[in-house]
Design brief:
about 170 residues, mainly beta, four-stranded antiparallel beta sheet, 8 strands, about 35% strand, elongated
Length: about 170
């Protein structure tokens, strides 16, 4: 019985040891050594560096404006490519920033205006963004607007009768 127990433990031990040994595989083909990248950075094609359009500015500073002041600013977009350019979308970062943009294709060399309206009824500092995406171009362009909307000077209410100022609002006959 002791021989059987010893034999059983030995087989169990050998099985556990075999399970821990990695399976032998045939050696895989060695990968070819990596070739150094060609010095194409100096003569990279223009298509990689030129997106095919150009904005006159990417940022508009309203400065300090009065509540209810002119809410529009404009960004000029020129198609510098050789094919028509289509604005797929232009979306403001919130409902207070609303862009207007042409829906028809922009011909090569043509300049159009993207008009952005900010709600100048909101008092205080603002920093907003318009995301412009183009058909066939993966990277969007971000147009930024910022400024401060100033509250109007506080209106002075007409003095009420009996407030001690002596001015009741009634006409004075001298």
């Amino acid at each position: 019985m002791k021989k059987f127990g010893f034999l059983f433990i030995s087989v169990l031990f050998c099985g556990a040891l075999a399970a821990q040994t990695p399976a032998k595989t045939t050696p895989a083909a060695k990968p070819a050594p990596a070739k150094p990248a060609p010095a194409a950075t100096t003569n990279a094609p223009a298509a990689q560096t030129d997106p095919g359009y150009k904005f006159d500015k990417l940022d508009h500073d309203y400065g300090t404006i009065a509540k209810g002041a002119e809410p529009y600013c404009e960004f000029r977009l020129t198609n510098t490519g050789k094919t028509p350019l289509v604005i797929a979308s232009a979306v403001g970062s919130c409902g207070c920033t609303v862009p207007e943009y042409p829906k028809e294709p922009i011909a090569p060399g043509q300049t159009v205006i993207i008009k952005v309206r900010y709600d100048t009824q909101r008092i205080g500092h603002f920093e907003k963004q318009v995301t412009v995406t183009f058909a066939g171009i993966a990277q969007p362009t971000y147009l930024k607007i910022h400024g401060t909307v100033e509250a109007p000077p506080a209106e002075q209410p007409f003095p009420a009768p009996g407030n001690g100022t002596g001015n009741t609002g009634a006409p004075v006959n001298n």
